[in-house]
Amino acid sequence: MAGWIALIAALIGAVAGTLSTYLTLRPRLTLELEYTYDRTLRDKRIDSYQRLFHVTRHFPRYYLDDGRPDGSDLHRYREELHDWYFNPDAGGMFLTAPAKQAFFELQNHIAGLIFIDGRLRDDRSAPISPEACDELVALAHGLRGQLVADIGSANTPRIYGAHPWPALEPPRTVLGPR
Known about the structure:
Elements lengths: L1 H54 L15 H15 L11 H18 E2 L2 E2 L9 H22 L20 H4 L3
Antiparallel strand pairs: 1-2
């Protein structure tokens, strides 16, 4: 009889140990897998976003009157954005939903400036209007801001150190009256 009690106690102990191991180990392994996936995705997103950030160099904080892009420039910029989105590294695949929204708003605005009824405008050599430039700058600024927010590079450092400063406004002497 004592042998049966010891056997039943051992079985109950084994089942309880297995169950407690399963209940504690499973969430930890799930968390580790999610962490690894998120970290890998973030690393790929950073690489991809750096390339897109570079493409947005065509849309500075402001355009000088003699430096405004024309239709040919915008067509080239649109192609560069398109190439980034569908490049072999699949840059567009890593955009978050808000970044994708900002990206396509910029692409759609450019397309609205250079196409009429699905065809390129004939007057591609004329600079675009200051208002259209302002809209381009605002859309590109929004896209860059979203890219930075997605990867968290503008967040306050978690380790004590120097804090980032906000971007300065462009000098009024450069922009002139608006």
